[in-house]
Amino acid sequence: MARTPKHPSDPTDLGRNRTGTRSAPLRTKEMLENTAAVPGAMVDTSGLAMARVELSEAAPPVGTMPPPGSVKGMAKAALEALQGEKATVFLDKLGERLAFERTGVRLYEAVLAKMPAAHLGKGSLSPDRVRRFRDEEQAHFRTVREAIEKLGGDPTALTPSADLAGVQATGLVSVVTDPRTTLTQCLDALLTAELADNDGWKLLIAMAEAMGQEDLASRFSRALAEEDQHLVSIRRWIAERLEGQLGAKLPAPEFGVPPPA
């Protein structure tokens, strides 16, 4: 099949973008004059605020936690862990991480699909590195799934936080799968995902330690160490690509990393 010719424009090229007011100065002047002619009035929004409070108080939750799938054969430790409200809070966050890691695999897959059409140029970004990070996200998914099973939960169930994590990630998936987005723009989306993922693992480690699940905390710490590497690498990839597009070196390729004390 014949390939479609590469589009000649880059997103940073000058084009027909007319979203700014300076593209229509006469209309802008007219708008400002009309706005100035209408006296401003204070609007009482207390009624709207009260309605929001009432709706929030009366609304049902986004979802609820599923009951254990099978009590028979469940380990004593799991039974103990499932007792009480705290266990369901932990399982809910485990479900959230499970959903996020699944999305992480899809994000890396989408970036891999972008790479043949992109100019990689000089730098440390390579398909092999992206594949390795995708595989590590998949391994993290298995780690969380096994943790949920150990605690007697059902890893196929969609917990409330998992549901919300899926909704939050919708925008990121849209960015990386849009044929119009560049590889650099997709790396920006990956960076957003990895920043959230990094904090998610830290929270999960703290919760595992608080619930006496030291073995899980240890396994999650190993996953976090790999996530740290993902974060550092993606920051560098973005910096390298922007340096190439900008035609100038960035003073600190590891942007976002606080300087040593």
TrEMBL record:
It comes from the Bacteria. Residues 1-27 are annotated as: Disordered. InterPro entries: Ferritin-like, Ferritin-like_SF. Gene3D superfamilies: 1.20.1260.10. Transmembrane segments: none annotated. Signal peptide: none annotated. Residues 7-16 have a biased composition (Basic and acidic residues). This is Ferritin Dps family protein. It comes from Anaeromyxobacter paludicola.
